[in-house]
Amino acid sequence: MTMRLLRGRTLSFVTRPQARDDHRSYVYEEDGALLIADGKIIAAGSYDKIIDQAPDSIETVDHRPHLLMPGFIDPHIHFPQIQVTASYAANLLEWLNTYTFVEEQRFADQAHSERMAKLFFDELLRQGTTTAVAYCSVHKGSADAYFAEAARRNLLMVGGKVMMDRNAPDALTDTAQSSYDDTRAVIAQWHGKARNHVAITPRFAITSTPGQLEAAGTLAREHPDLLIQTHLSENDAEIAYTLELYPEAKDYTDIYAHYGLLTDKALLGHAIHLSDREMGAIAEAGAIAVHCPTSNLFLGSGLFDLKRLKAHGVRTAVATDIGGGSSYSMLRTLDEAYKIQQLRGHRLPPIESFWQVTRGNAEALGLADRIGTLEPGSDADIIALDASATPAMKIRMETVTRLEEELFLLQTLGDDRSVRVVYVAGEAVSLD
User: Fold this and answer.
1) Chain-centre distance for alpha carbon 388
2) Which residues contact 299 (CB under 8 A, 6 or more apart)?
3) Which of 39, 66, 104, 218 has a 20 to 30 Å separation from 300 between CA atoms?
4) Sign (positive/negative) of CA torsion 26, 27, 30, 31?
């Protein structure tokens, strides 16, 4: 048994914070320790307590004064868009047609997919993101490259081959039948292999015919344990066009409900412009509204209404949405999420933000028993954060006296420089 002990200040959430000072929502140890064996956390608590449980000869890695937390989780990101980020466009549909669909055609080349997969995971890990839910391209080979690289690095990753059979270049479309067959093949080849999880992935209603959404719904019934990912109500023009394509639907959300895709496994990217009826339907289904703040600001799509969604009982997550998003960093993502809620008149506490990118996002994926916490039995995906990583942060830290202040500093001024160490299944990885 390979065993080591990590020492540092430890923070792990047990429930969603209900107030700015909800100290019952997390466990914090000023001098904490994590005992790790064979990729799992087997004990967590104060250093004095945990060291007594460890063998005398155990390898100890001292990360003090850094903060040890679960690795960040990004529940909405596009693997084929690594070279699309920072592309200038007026809005979502122009951005898709001018840049994204052009770039994604390159993933028909297996060598290109494999090279991009390596670079993609390098960047995620550098930012402290140890799990992501990714859209691959329409090509099965892109999903193969994604999952093969994740398995090679022993990462817990979720992904899916995009299903898209209309309103895209011919070279980037499949059919209802081929998308069903390819997705089934990806599931058989990769789901449950190493730490991989497959998601059923119709891009969005505009790029799927009714026949393809029906095929996606069939996959969801055949594999009820699989996550479903798609896009919903990101942009006013997108919504109008969607309802032209599906005139019988009550609204955008009703389209996915009709085809059996609105379930407690559904990750609904963006979910900005929703009626009360839609919010009620999403809440009743237990589906997840995934906030993508840097993308929504970059493309001018709108401001996520977290307060109203919470009032309707809608479960939420927060994500980067690379390449519409402008940063791979979950810290930068939290900063923009906070600002959006400020504009909405809703003050978002930093402890709620850090709950969201760890345990909260893990709960959204149904994986909180594996990732997102430092609880015994969890996979040892752990990061060490430095709130004094830059000169400006170091100066501000001289006046910080509370954990909540430190977290707010990290999300406001932090970035990849604050991520000092990343452990994947208990093994430190290179961030160079």
Assistant:
1) 26
2) 89, 91, 92, 95, 234, 235, 324
3) 104
4) negative
